[in-house]
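User: Please fill in residues for this 271-position structure.
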């Protein structure tokens, strides 16, 4: 899959570090136009999570088993009757082309290519028909899981999904208006993961059990969603173990291609 090239300049937002400064940026003719108007190449910057309107979310909600084929892959006989959600710490977030650390001694650590929904304004008791009005934009997330630590599929413990560096996100935040104008919304986008250039996962957002409007309606019935909050919408089947040295690219049509480099922890620490 090739990332869509016809997004208009200004619809794809990034947050980067360049020459020691943290700056907002937009895609501009195959380069980055920084908020100070300088134009630089993609490989000249350090990429940060591309979040707006705040730098860090208050809440990161993640979905488990939101694709029927993934549930089947994990030997579930039937899909969930309501969204299976858990909360992630924002400290696990890193940007595009950064390093995710694999702990020493683990046997199975896999990627999860997911569409991330970024909330744009305060949402409380939102009706499904109005849900898209509360979306700022969309980005790609790789929600790594360390299967060794898993005790409960429905409520994964902290070591499975909350380790530092294990939630790469980006590189772009694409305006919701652009995705809706170009694709009719986020619910028919192709997802793909490659490991060292080999396609290992392929799916489509139309196969979600609970679509984006349903999720916003559901969560906002009992909790307030704030600007900048994230909803990670789950992954299709096709997850495989990743090893130190692997280059993992999680890509979503029209949203972007997120690269992650896996490295091994030193002395079973985070560094």
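Assistant: Residues filled in for all 271 positions:
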């Amino acid at each position: 899959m090739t990332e869509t090239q016809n997004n208009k300049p200004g619809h794809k937002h990034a947050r980067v570090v360049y020459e020691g400064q943290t700056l907002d940026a937009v895609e501009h003719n195959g380069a980055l136009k920084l908020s100070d108007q300088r134009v630089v190449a993609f490989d000249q910057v350090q990429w940060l999570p591309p979040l707006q309107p705040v730098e860090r979310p208050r809440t990161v909600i993640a979905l488990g088993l939101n694709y029927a084929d993934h549930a089947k892959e994990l030997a579930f006989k039937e899909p969930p009757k309501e969204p299976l959600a858990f909360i992630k710490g924002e400290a696990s977030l890193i940007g595009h082309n950064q390093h995710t650390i694999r702990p020493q001694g683990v046997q199975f650590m896999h990627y999860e290519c997911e569409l991330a929904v970024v909330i744009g304004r305060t949402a409380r008791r939102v009706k499904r028909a109005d849900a898209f009005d509360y979306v700022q934009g969309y980005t790609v997330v790789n929600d790594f899981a360390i299967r060794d630590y898993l005790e409960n599929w429905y409520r994964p413990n902290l070591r499975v999904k909350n380790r530092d560096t294990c939630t790469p996100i980006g590189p772009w935040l694409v305006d919701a208006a652009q995705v809706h104008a170009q694709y009719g919304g986020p619910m028919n986008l192709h997802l793909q993961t490659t490991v060292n250039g080999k396609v290992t996962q392929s799916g489509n957002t139309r196969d979600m059990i609970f679509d984006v409007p349903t999720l916003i309606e559901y969560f906002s019935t009992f909790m307030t969603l704030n600007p900048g909050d994230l909803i990670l919408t789950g992954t299709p089947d096709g997850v495989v173990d990743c090893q130190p040295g692997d280059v993992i690219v999680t890509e979503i049509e029209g949203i972007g291609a997120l690269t992650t480099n896996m490295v091994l922890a030193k002395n079973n620490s985070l560094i």
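For context: The first helix runs from residue 68 to 73.
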